């Protein structure tokens, strides 16, 4: 016995070795000394030798069943091993032996709780609490059970009992405050949560719950509470603090701070679908980035396929991007999970209506009406259904009856909107004015409510539709007076001012963009304004901003392409228009504008392809396309196709004299003179004062080549000059007509009159130079040619000056002019021919032959050039000279000089038969 007691003392003072020796020796001396076994089992526990300790306890219980402490200790060992059943058995035996042991009841309740027997656990907690009221842990467990099962009244009573025992229990204050918040008793909840924070400043839950309550009434204090809570506990258990702080940042429009909080919540709990949805909403609201938002919504759906909110958000994002089919599928999934929500049916019906699937759309709207009984009973909802189904008369009738029963601003506004949909804008204005009367405060000193701004805005829209721009301007002014931050009102007022030709319309666009930098239409309208004012660079900058907002906008690329066209940046314009085509391959305007740019860049084949694409895309012939393509064909010399296009254009626009005039020009170029005259006649029937038509008809009549044609042509030129005495082309043509008639002085007078009107008229200067040359005034011809060349140098003018100088005997300068003409236009054959003649005259036959060869390389069917080359070859190359004479004879069989010269060559070669044959040809 003494050894046992000494061993127990050694254990208590920490001399474990001596304790082991004494206890083991005591058991050797007396193996039934149970106290020795008890103290030895305690030493085994210190060594973490639970099996040996359990053996000692079992020995004690086997030989003495009244040892409560042994049962309790053995229960503790089983509890540590996770064997709840054996622990409960031993705790129960301990309680039988000692019914007043509070701790045993508490621990057995914990084992019942571990095994899931909550009712038995609650009984033990109640007994423990009754035996020792100051042991608040038992009552806290009861309170937490009721808290988790939403038994709010019982939970409040339990936490109140705890606080009666311990007025400084922070957890009790925290959970009682949380219960009050759940019950909506926020005035009681806040003091409890404040007390929880006061008694335990490290209580993260109290800070979190108080932040939740203060989120609406005191957001900045709530933000502080959430932040402190996260500083104290940023683990997965406090993940909702990240969520609520992110939501609070969103409410405060601190988007860049909200996203990291939601991302932190996702890192802690990847199954938190609502965090993905919130990030997606920020991407849309702040950045208008629908692609990123859709990826977030998709992640939320992947985490929780039954999360209807994510499906609805993704459907709305798909709708904004124009991906209607994907949006319809998401609404279908939402309806499958929540078939009782009428709004989903309405939304899907609206999308089906946009796809022109009227039957399916009607089905969904009717289904929504049947699902919600209030939809059929409420006048507002009935009107919405009828309006959706385009039964505007029924919708208006329902709303008018509602206004008679209970007039309100909301119903009058809805009635006005319905009238707008029905295109009854005057009735809509009347309804909106009645809404304004209701919204106007009885005291004139009180400001109008913000809702009135929207009503004034709608009045302005209606006034614009009925082309009452002044009334629309007044309405938008009122809307802005009520709400100075109404961006849409500023934008619409700017458009109205532009219609009224006010100079300061662009200021409203700037104000609208200052309020709402995401207002896409304002950027485009400002670009159009700058384009109208010729400030193309600023217009392009506005288009750049619009494209940043909506990279898939065809209109923005069309606008920017048009502006770049005006600054002659055709290549950049083509890039923008190509981008527009890539976005919408059926946009005919993009193809048309790109064709115009290709036309300006001389890429004729590309322009023709784009014009052809426009013709294929549009069901009816496009007049502008036909005209532009016809002019392009004229420019590249394809007169036949140009003629066909202008014929088609004449059928589309039967009263357009310019098309008839161009048609006559095409016939004239094809040498169809009678058809050309007929086309000019048609143009003059449409517009008897069309000067160019008289001019063109005169040219066609002149080309008939007989005297009557010259007389009739001169008459048309005189008519043109009678209508427009300053018409230079008519005066020059009249001068040429007189020249043909041999009336050189009269022709010279007309050319001089044209030059007096416009001293830079090259055609008149050139014509007068020719007349001077014909009249023997070579110096006057030379002076006129010089004046013409000062205006602009062309190969024809240089060649003609060379001819004048040749007549003046200045062969050196003549050759220089011919060579300058060749350098300017290497394909101008007449300069080669004239240079060859000069060299021939100077007896420089080698150079002459070279120039005749080059002339014939460009125009091989010119009999004069062939004949002159033959004469040049006659000086030594008889064989090739004969060949050239024969070629000249083939080109012009009636030209006697060719036969004569060929005969000379044959005579030189003593081929007398050939001489006789050549000489006997008819002359």
Automatic annotation (TrEMBL):
Q: Does the keyword Amino-acid biosynthesis apply?
A: no
Which Pfam family name is an example for this entry? Answer: TPR_16
Which superkingdom? Eukaryota
Q: Which keywords describe this protein according to UniProt?
A: Repeat, TPR repeat
Q: Look up keyword tRNA-binding and say if it applies.
A: no
- Tell me which SUPFAM superfamilies the record gives: TPR-like (SSF48452)
Q: Where are the TPR repeats?
A: 68-101, 136-169, 170-203, 239-272, 308-341, 453-486, 623-656, 657-690, 795-828, 829-862
What InterPro entries does its record include?
A: TPR-like_helical_dom_sf, TPR_rpt, Ycf3
Q: What is this protein called?
A: UDP-N-acetylglucosamine--peptide N-acetylglucosaminyltransferase SPINDLY
Say which species the protein is native to.
Nematostella vectensis (Starlet sea anemone)
